[in-house]
Amino acid sequence: MNIVIEHNPSSIKLSELGVMSWPKWSCQPGKYALVFEERETCYLVKGKVKVYPKGSSEFVEFGAGDLVTIPKGLSCTWEVSLFIDKHYKFDPPT
């Protein structure tokens, strides 16, 4: 699946990446079908989610304080258990 999770990155790393200047996205608990057209890097300020790749019963779970990289082309379902508030950025198209 290649979702990369870094738990509790340092404030220095977050500052170097410029995370707090990235756009924000939020959602209520529920299930969401998503397709990632580009690689996304996000930092969860609040929340908890399980990500199930399309056609799989396996999942990856991450939450508040995690820096996450989601691969380009991933089709998945986000099962949000706690309200999500995140900063995100997409890699430019190649």
UniProtKB/TrEMBL annotation:
Look up the signal peptide feature and give its range: none
InterPro entries to which the protein is assigned, alphabetical: RmlC-like_jellyroll (IPR014710), RmlC_Cupin_sf (IPR011051), UGlyAH_Cupin_dom (IPR008579)
- The segment(s) forming the (S)-ureidoglycine aminohydrolase cupin domain are 14-88
CDD domains in the record: cupin_TM1112-like
**SUPFAM superfamilies tied to this protein:** RmlC-like cupins
**Protein name, as recorded:** (S)-ureidoglycine aminohydrolase cupin domain-containing protein
Naturally occurring in which organism (per UniProt):
Eruca vesicaria subsp. sativa (Garden rocket)
